[in-house]
Specification:
- The protein is of the alpha/beta class.
- The chain has 2 domains: 112 residues, no CATH class; 29 residues, no CATH class.
- It has 5 helices and 8 strands; from the N terminus they run E-E-E-E-E-H-H-E-H-E-H-H-E.
- Strands 1-7-8 form a 3-stranded parallel sheet, with helices on one face. Strands 2-3-4 form a 3-stranded antiparallel sheet, with no helix packed on it. Strands 5-6 form a two-stranded antiparallel ribbon.
């Protein structure tokens, strides 16, 4: 039973999932193994792409995340007090299964009264920018991520969660290998 009853069906068109560490590596072809690694830097896990650590997503494990809605006030009124990014995000929280798995996410959607949702991956945003000089690698990583998305979330989970695959166009005539 939803905790919030609405007189209309609610379709959330901007929802996000947090990938696990295997999301971009599990299905990566052998020739690209090691192109993406999770490494430890001063006790924190970072992503290294071709041996170069990226800070584009500062916490790629998503074990601790900003609370949902943390930036609501920022988007509503801006930042008139000049708060830092950390102050805007507020007190973080430990990631919950609903952030990483479709079953628990569906339960959370039920609690919130959300009927359907478009679910976007989070790590995908770093792929093309950090690999811009290697279109073949981009395609291999995007394809591996999409395979993981399909395997883990499907692209249509119970006709309620529609996970969005990543589409990359640096090689326009490239066709999917699956």
């Amino acid at each position: 039973m939803p905790s919030r009853e609405l007189p209309y069906p609610l379709f959330d068109a901007d929802n996000h999932l947090y990938e696990t560490e295997e999301a971009m590596t599990k299905h990566l072809p052998k020739e690209y193994q090691g192109a993406i690694e999770y490494v430890q830097v001063r006790g924190r896990t970072k992503i290294a792409i071709r041996g170069q650590i990226t800070e584009y997503i500062p916490n790629p494990t998503f074990e601790v995340v900003a609370r949902p809605g943390a930036m609501e006030e920022y988007y509503r009124v801006g930042n008139p007090d000049g708060k830092s990014r950390r102050e805007i995000f507020g007190e973080p929280m430990r990631s919950i299964p609903a952030f990483r798995e479709p079953g628990p996410r569906l339960e959370l959607m039920d609690e919130l009264g959300i009927d359907r949702s478009l679910m976007f991956p989070t790590l995908a945003s770093l792929v093309e920018e950090r690999m811009r000089d290697d279109p073949e690698l981009i395609h291999a990583v995007v394809h591996a991520l999409n395979q993981w998305l399909h395997e883990t979330w499907s692209f249509n989970f119970k006709d309620r969660i529609y996970t969005v695959p990543v589409i990359s166009l640096p090689i326009v005539d490239r066709r999917s290998r699956s």
